[in-house]
Structure to design on (510 residues):
């Protein structure tokens, strides 16, 4: 048994989440029924979808009036022009619109397909789910409320599945976090040979999101995963959040 | 306790690995000393560095004669021209050479910095370590040998740390694998609302590599991590390998 042993386990018994629900209370209630209960040093990885739902970030397509640009893009891509309009509303920049794929930069600076807008696991026909307005703020709010309810302040990560430029498939990344070092900068450290490490910054929060993705059943309602073994990255203050992971626009070499 | 609980634990007591070493035997010996021992259904994530070392993929820079192009790039980037030459030798295409960063497509089709060539955790001055010639073949070979030594055939993943186009920090990905479904294609499945899932292919092997990265101490000698809880993705045959994760050149929208 190693000090660095990592475990990831979904929180059982979560109900369907609806707009206005107190997500932290739902998590705290499920934690009370689970053993071991959530404690300081844990990392709670929550699917973006339930965070967005609790915040009412749902948009009925019937209310959407597509612009000419949305109509044009929709025609090119074979998409619903109303969905394209919602994606445009959530974005600052369209990076690629080809092969049925719409890749944009969101208002948060995230580069992903459809600005994170999607329809899976959303109740009702013709309703789409948007990313939280400020996923770091969402994580901080949930963490503060968990602290009040549980007397423990686990780190909170808001995770979503993103495609990658040169690799197939999607991997979960952190779009929001509180109380977890998003990046572990080991530059200046030494390797086992005593040589200085170069260019080594570990994407801790993204890797935690990916580990959590492997522990949960995405088709089901396992929207919350508890990770143990990352205590060394959990901080008392909320920290810089996942905004710190976004590569600044002027350092982007690929758009 | 959930059926999907995931755990990742480094294999303790690995020695320094040198060219010609039988890596599977080293892993099997460490497994015999660890409890619980490696078994069918486990996923063994091995750092690329030790795989490369065991295969003798080390190149002394003293033997390298930089070309004019390597000298030019080295001057622009502030790098050692001999290292740049090694990177060029490992690559089919230079994608970006700016800000001190050299991003290429390797002979395997991987897009990463410096073609995966690096100097950290390599013994001796002025020796660089290259990626395995065929990391999927490396994984298959280690798996076959483990099957012989242990009577169990865990999946094997060869992992390396890659940067990402729009996100800071590095996350571990699978550059080779055997016996693990590299991608879980859930298109055509249904979400909790019974709606058909779209565009949902999970990058299982990459997420496993990322989970393992969180469990080990990169500066130390914890080059092998055992993941439990992914039995549903472990296959008897070796499968398509991590080559299946590489986005085909003609579907690349960003280079």
């Amino acid at each position: 048994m190693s000090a660095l042993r990592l475990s990831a386990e979904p929180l059982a018994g979560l109900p369907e989440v609806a707009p206005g629900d107190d997500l932290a209370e739902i998590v705290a209630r499920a934690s009370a029924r689970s053993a071991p209960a959530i404690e300081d040093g844990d990392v709670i990885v929550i699917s973006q979808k339930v965070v967005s739902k609790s915040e009412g970030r749902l948009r009925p397509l019937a209310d959407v009036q597509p612009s000419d640009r949305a109509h044009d893009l929709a025609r090119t891509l074979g998409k619903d022009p109303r969905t394209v309009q919602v994606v445009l509303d959530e974005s600052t920049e369209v990076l690629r619109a080809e092969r049925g794929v719409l890749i944009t930069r969101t208002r948060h600076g995230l580069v992903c397909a459809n600005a994170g807008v999607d329809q899976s696991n959303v109740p009702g026909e013709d309703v789409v789910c948007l990313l939280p307005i400020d996923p770091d703020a969402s994580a901080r709010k949930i963490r503060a409320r968990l602290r009040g309810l549980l007397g423990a302040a686990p780190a909170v990560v808001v995770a979503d599945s993103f495609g990658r430029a040169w690799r197939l498939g999607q991997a979960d990344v952190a779009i929001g976090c509180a109380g977890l070092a998003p990046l572990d900068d080991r530059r200046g450290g030494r390797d086992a040979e005593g040589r200085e490490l170069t260019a080594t910054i570990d994407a801790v929060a993204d890797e935690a999101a990916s580990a959590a993705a492997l522990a949960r059943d995405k088709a089901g309602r396992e929207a919350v995963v508890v990770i143990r073994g990352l205590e060394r990255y959990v901080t008392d203050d909320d920290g810089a959040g996942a905004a710190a992971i976004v590569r600044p626009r002027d350092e982007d070499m690929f758009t």
